[in-house]
Specification:
It is a single chain. By secondary structure, this protein is an alpha+beta fold. It has one domain. The protein has 8 helices and 6 strands, in the order αααβββββααααβα.
């Protein structure tokens, strides 16, 4: 994954509007609170998703049948398939078509692989890598075949981020609050990764003429960045402070 890795510059935070920074700060506080209540019970984010699911198998979705919010059409699951890395597993987050803003549709596609249609035309938003202790260590985007999604252009996927929210208690209320808040706290990194995704796919297609880029197994991860919740919160708070000094 490191060949497509990047880091966000601090200037990105100071250039954000104060309202967005405050939303990010609120999301950070929610994440910290989720950690607090879980740790009091000796629990963590990943353990909550896996509890009661039986023996763990690589590539299986956890919990079984994914987590889905029928009101927002948001969806996620956890799985693992990267043995030999510092990643324990990762979450995949999605938005299904009924939860998207009106007028959004997949990009034109002339290949032979069937894409999900209608209300099943989901879009992958972001992947969240987790360590062995149940904490997030990275964000990443993928090629289409990895998640069997319908492919939407980057700016449309960025619009979808506003609609992702898991607002119920299955399999764990803290986990659902946490994953919803993660997409808010790390919004600058997620937007950058999604835009990078489209550029990587375009460049790949130019270099591999005649290949269905969306199905090319040689292109799996289109971008990755390391993350740290505490550091992100500090950067957001510092940027809010700079807004205050300039008011």
């Amino acid at each position: 994954m490191n060949d497509k890795a990047f880091e966000i510059d601090n200037d990105v935070f100071t250039n954000l509007f104060r309202m967005q920074l405050e939303r990010m700060a609120d999301a950070g506080a929610q994440i910290v609170e989720c950690y607090r209540v879980l740790q009091k019970g000796g629990l963590n984010i990943v353990g909550e998703v896996l509890k009661g699911q039986g023996e763990f198998y690589e590539l299986e979705h956890y919990p079984k049948d994914d987590v889905f919010d029928g009101e927002t059409n948001s969806q996620y699951y956890y799985h693992a398939h990267r043995a030999g890395t510092n990643e324990n597993g990762h979450f995949h987050t999605f938005l299904r078509q009924p939860g998207m803003s009106a007028g959004l549709s997949p990009v034109p596609y002339s290949g032979t692989e069937p894409w999900p249609q209608g209300s099943d035309a989901l879009s992958h938003l972001i992947g969240i890598s987790m360590d062995a202790y149940g904490f997030p260590i990275g964000l990443f985007t993928t090629n289409r075949w990895v998640t069997a999604e319908a492919w939407y252009k980057a700016e449309d996927v960025i619009i979808m981020l506003d609609h992702f929210r898991i607002d119920h208690a299955y399999p764990s209320w803290p986990v659902n609050l946490w994953i919803s808040a993660m997409l808010v706290l790390f919004r600058p990194q997620i937007e950058a990764l999604i835009r990078q995704r489209d550029q990587v796919v375009t460049n790949w297609e130019c270099r591999h003429k005649g290949v269905d880029v969306y199905e090319d197994r040689e292109l799996e991860i289109t971008g990755y960045t390391s993350i740290n919740v505490e550091q992100q919160i500090r950067r957001v708070v510092a940027a809010i402070g700079k807004h205050g000094m300039s008011a």
